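Quick one: co-fold with iron/sulfur cluster.
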Amino acid sequence: MQPSGEAHLGNYLGALRPWVSLQDDYDCVFCIVDQHAITAGGHPSEMPANVIDLAVSYLAVGLDPERSIIFVQSDVQEHTELAWLFNAVSPVGDLERMTQFKDKSQHFESIPAGILNYPILQAADILLYKADAVPVGEDQRQHLELTRDIARKFNAVYGETFPETEALIDKGVGRILGLDGKAKMSKSLGNTVGVLAEQDEVWERVRTAVTDPQRIKRSDAGRPHVCNVFTLHGHFTDEVKRTEIESECSTAEIGCVDCKKTLSDSITDSFSPYRERATYYRSRPDEVRSVLLDGATRARAIAEKTMIEVRDKMGLDWQVRFD
Ligand code: SF4
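Sure, here it is.
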């Protein structure tokens, strides 16, 4: 995940919550991708705090440094080295076909090369660890296909080295719309709320949520199944209460403000243990730093092994050169 500070609701539902469960079945590697984040601009002075805030979010929601490797991308330099080497087997046409490249490049008069090459660095992030599987949202499936292509091409040219990593798609989540009910949840669009937000802040955000557009007056019957507020209840409110809301909305017995208040309370309650753990970690920056340094050491041990093999196969090994 890119470091843009504290994780938000969309990050939680789409990534962090399923990642926590994956730890039961896989040896997981969780990376904070600061080198990807530089392609989005932002001021260098903001990066360190954004990285730490995301690390705190990771730990607060239950990514467990005892069971998983948690680290920062730029602390393991093999990521950028492998990305450069993958340029040798990555056709520009494939990169230009990526939907995200087409979308993002529209915002630039002169397109930075990093926007085009972004999926090559993603491929390196994944293949450096010879990952069997990677959890991705639907919007990242195309980039994972490219990763698989890069692995195939590399293997064909230099010999069998990388697996064709499988996509783990969490079908239970689906597309999570922001509180505006239109776009995917995103901090930059301001249509979400922080996972570690306090009760007042959650309510400030949730009260702005867009509801059923046909329910104009309090006395109008609502349609919960077209209302994004009701969809969000599905992730945070218990079934009994949801069934009650569904029925009361359809008969105009409950108003949208009360319905949003219930959602706000459900979100606040669900995230309460995370806020407590975040308070713990924020008061112990040394502990967070040591998690990230230990994670980088463990990640580097795997990465170095892969790179020795890659350099050897590509004729770039200095020891072989002098044999
Ligand atoms: Fe949506 Fe709730 Fe209003 Fe019904 S009562 S339209 S579910 S916000």
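If it helps, Residues 199-279 form a domain with the Tyrosyl-Transfer RNA Synthetase fold (CATH 1.10.240.10).
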